[in-house]
Amino acid sequence: MALCSGHTRESRLLLLLLLLLLLLLQPCACWICASSCPKTGAAAAAAYAAAAAAAANSLPYGPCTGSAAGPAIAAATAAAKVRQPTLQQQQQQQQQQGAAGLCMRFYKARAIRALSIPEIEREVLQARQSLGHLRLLQRAGLAKQHQLVHARRLLRQLLTIRAEREGSTGRQQLRQQQQQLQQQQQQAFLREATQLQQQLRQQMTPEMQQQLQQLQEQLQQQLQEQQEWEQQQQLMKQQLKGTRRLPSRKAKADAAAAAAKMAAAATAAAATAAAAADAAAAEH
C-alpha cells in the first residue's frame, strides 16, 4: 500500500505537469478544433493519451506495477516533436525578414536619392500600402510594433526625399525659364538694333555717312592709342620690377599727355556724334 501511495503521488504530479503541457500546446479554442488543425491536433491527442494513461495508473485500485513516468515522458517528447510552426507563424517570420531587408535597403538616403521621381512615387505608394496592411495585422495581433516603426520611418524618409527632389526640380525649371526669357529678350534687342541700324543707313545723307566714317576712324585711332598706352604701362611695370625704381618725370609726362590726348579725342567723337544726331533729327 505504501508503494501504491508513492506511485499515486508521483502520478498526480506527472498529471499536473501534463495538463500544463496541454495548456501550452493547445492553440485552438476547444478539443473539437483538433480536426481542423492536424499538426496541433496530433500533439494534443498524444498528450491526452499520456494524461489518460497516467490517470489510470494513479487510481487507488488501478495497476501499480511499474512507473508512470516513462510513458508520460515519452508522450511529452512525441508531442514536442510533432509540434511545428503554423502557417501564420511562417508568414509572420517572412514579413519580419522582408521588413528588415526593406529597411536595410532603403535607410540610406543615397539609395533613395539615386531613384527617379516616378520610382520614388511608386515606392511611396508601396510603403503606404504596407503600412496600412501592418496596421490591420497589428489590430489582429499578428504584427509587432517594431514593424510599424520601420514602415513609418521608411515612409517618412521617402516623403522627405520626394519633397526635396520636387523642390530641386522646381528650382531647375525656374532657372531654365529665366534663362529662356533672357535669351528671348537679347534676341529681341538684337533684332530691334539691327532694324534701327538699317533704317538709319537708308535715311542717312552722304554728309552723315562721311561724318560717321570719320567718327569710326577716330574711334579706331583712340583704340590704337589706348593699346599703345597699355603697352607702355606694362613696359614701365616690368622696368620697375627689374630696377625697383620710381618712374622718371618724362614717363609721367608722357602718360599724362597720352591720357589728355585720349580724353580730347573722346570729346571730339562725342561732339561729332551729337552733331550727326541733331542733323538727323532736324531732317526728320
Automatic annotation (TrEMBL):
UniProtKB keywords: Coiled coil, Signal
Entry superkingdom: Eukaryota
Coiled coil: 171-239
Residues spanning the signal sequence: 1-30
Keyword Signal: yes
The keyword Coiled coil is annotated on this UniProt entry: yes
Name this protein carries in UniProt: Ribosomal protein L29
